Amino acid sequence: MIEKINIGIAGSCGRGRSFKTACDASGILKIHAVCDVNEEKLEESRVALGAEEKYLDYYEMIEKSDIQAVIIGTPMPFHASQAIAALNKNIHVLSEVPAAVSIEECKELVLAARRSKALYMMAENYTYIKSNVMVKEMVKRGMFGELYYAEGEYIHELKQLNEITKWRRKWQTGINGITYGTHSLGPVLQWMHPDRVISVCCAGSGHHYKDSEGRYYENEDTCVMLCKMASGALVKIRVDMLSDRPHAMTNYQLQGTDGCYESARAHGERHRIWIRSLCPEMKWMYLDELGEQFLPQEWKKHQEIAMKTGHGGGDFFEIMDFCDAITGKKKCPIGIDEAMDMTLPGLVSQQSIVQNGKWLDVPDSRQWN
Ligand SMILES: NC(=O)c1ccc[n+]([C@@H]2O[C@H](COP(=O)([O-])OP(=O)(O)OC[C@H]3O[C@@H](n4cnc5c(N)ncnc54)[C@H](O)[C@@H]3O)[C@@H](O)[C@H]2O)c1
Q1: For ligand 1, which residues put their CB under 6 angstroms from it?
Q2: Which atom belonging to ligand 1 lies closest to the Cα atom of 79?
Q3: Total-model pTM
């Protein structure tokens, strides 16, 4: 039985830092090494995360440190290459989203994951948000009937953050199309499992904002990707990181033949649901009125501690699943092919938008061997 897994955290001065509470709560992950290119803050992050070792160079960490797993919390363009390097050394990987920034990178990552004895998991924490988990459970019990439409939106004004974390200016708002779509598509794909996106088209709303140098962003303010699912169902994904508006970040919707769901738009609002078997009249109910009857046992058990970690408990449950997958207790819910199902449509949307919204096929990573 595995009792302890030494882990290295890359990007420990940024997002990587936020995994400490969840790692500690896991009872099995021991943060052994940290890595960040920020020399000034590296020692501070080592102390904060309670690590024994620190590295300025990621490749040196995976070469020298006694670690069996890494969490990759570095900027988007590093995810795939750093994951591949770890997998090549049979080090388990929990990678931040998206899995990669090009289709070529996706292919290389898939092949590395297939070759490796280690596990690859993508850290799509929005799939673990309580309301999304409850809807998933109700879908699993057949309460929505046949699913045929869903929406996911990520509307997060990040213009200021673009100036501070410069990589965002290039990789999130410097490319047109869906650059950061997994938070929206991820939960929808889990609801619709085992369905997958087979083709996408993408269009934008034009350019209305300029960066600090007076240049329009290459990314159109709002980009919408339509996804055709293998089943024939339709999914709409909207990502907007530029528009001025009060904060109301995520939106999820689901429509089936026997039920529908509309998440709350903003803080203080409530998630609405209608399920034929619970309410034969055509009247909305609120998700919170259903109590915890559709919350999985694991969620109930760890709710208190989970809520102390980030993203409404999501950061805790993804770490738990990562540990359970490494130790063989559970199948990895967002392994390499699920990570590709969530990542590839956005990358293809970037090709669609430059071809005037042409419908393009999305490759199936299961064919890449
Ligand atoms: N899942 C979520 O909810 C969530 C939330 C925030 C960020 N993210 C993702 O996490 C990643 C990091 O985002 P962030 O907001 O922390 O960015 P950030 O720029 O604030 O932090 C990234 C950190 O990585 C370090 N870094 C850069 N290049 C590196 C390299 N080659 N090797 C090691 N360290 C390196 C930087 O010095 C910085 O400390 C992004 O991919 C982002 O999309 C996900």
Answers
A1: 10-11, 13-15, 35-38, 58, 73-76, 78, 96-97, 123, 125, 165, 311
A2: 41
A3: 0.97
The pLDDT assigned to 1 comes to 74
Q: Mean pLDDT of all residues in the chain? A: 96
What's the gap in Å between 78 CA and the centre of ligand 1?
Answer: 9
Q: How far is the CA of 98 from the centre of ligand 1 (A)?
A: 12
Q: Do residues 105 and 218 both lie within one domain?
A: no
My answer on whether 106 and 137 are in the same domain is no
Distance CA 325, CA 63 (A): 24
From the list 20, 67, 31, the residue with the least C-alpha distance to 315 is 20
Span 126-132, average pLDDT: 95
Q: For residue 119, what pLDDT is reported?
A: 98
| pLDDT on residue 267 | 85
Examine the domain organization and report whether 217 and 346 are in the same domain: yes
Q: Of the residues 68, 92, 125, which one is the last residue of a structural domain?
A: 125
Last residue of a domain, one of 81, 97, 125: 125
The tokens for 236 are 């709409």
Q: What is the extent of the structural domain holding 99?
A: 5-125
Which of these ranges, 230-234, 312-316, 337-341, has the smallest mean pLDDT?
312-316
Neighbours of 238 (CB within 10 A): 18
d(CA 260, CA 45): 44
Amino acid 313: pLDDT: 84
